[in-house]
Amino acid sequence: MIIDLVGASRLDDIEHIEKALRRCVEVSKATLLHIHLHHFTPNGGVSGVAVLSESHISIHSWPEADYAALDVFMCGEAEPHNAIEVLREAFSPSDIRVGEHLRGQDMV
Amino acid sequence: MIIDLVGASRLDDIEHIEKALRRCVEVSKATLLHIHLHHFTPNGGVSGVAVLSESHISIHSWPEADYAALDVFMCGEAEPHNAIEVLREAFSPSDIRVGEHLRGQDMV
Prior knowledge:
alpha+beta; homodimer; 6 strands
């Protein structure tokens, strides 16, 4: 899932973002292997990735534009759609754009 | 860019994959902030992410299917297309499927 948050808040709050990512992993019934977030400047954007047994979740935020770009990439029995509600609650976006890109169906 | 490698080799070689990711960052003129790779079993698939100043590169490989799914997500002045040739040389795929998904154009 390719998720764009528009008109969103708290996109410069790295602790809040980490909590939201961890909650996304949890509600998606995925398994967290590694998480790393980077804060570009104290009040600037955040880039973060959670590596999962089922692939990954990533976020890149531009708080100055109230915009964040997330990928929720999962395989197997995970339930990535459950993450959408977590993101809505965490960042109060005025709009969430969700795209789906299926891949590897004929491969794995 | 959403890149699928089909009929690819060395997808269970974590050191080779890390080297290829680092080379992708380099040729794309991006800046590496953090890299993490996970090997699921000694000869199994690898999941890896490189967090960049310009966003991220991720890989998930299924060596048993000779298949890998990569994302090369970059903003700014980076040149993500340069990574394709690196992947071709590193993993000798019989086919590379490259999709492009532009996002945030009206936002940032």
